[in-house]
Amino acid sequence: MEFIQQDWNWAWATLAAVSGTLLLVTSLRGGGRGVSPAQATQLINREDAVVIDVREAGEYNAGHLLDARHIPVGELAKRTAELEKFKDKPIILNCQSGARSASACSILSKAGFARVHNLEGGIAAWEQAGMPISRKRK
Fold this sequence. Notes:
alpha/beta, single chain
């Protein structure tokens, strides 16, 4: 307790508690396993992973991962039948920052998809890593 009462230590203790809580909530939500842009590239190249962009149409049209299918997160639960043929493949979901795609991972996991991955940091991290972007509609 003495550690927490000292000057700024209470702020660090609060930050640690909040951070731990967010990690716990994310893992309990079943948001899929997070993958970095480099890990996603390996899954795409080595295991023919399917990429699904769950952003809205305008965001998708502005630029997306190569060969990404577009299914907005709000439509995903209704459209899981379209993905049945990919049930045995790794599926990488992405949005702008990784938040919406975490929800999308949860939807697919509940629908029985076992190899669901969330692109950590979303397309923003993908672009920051210097990875290619496409504007072609799939």
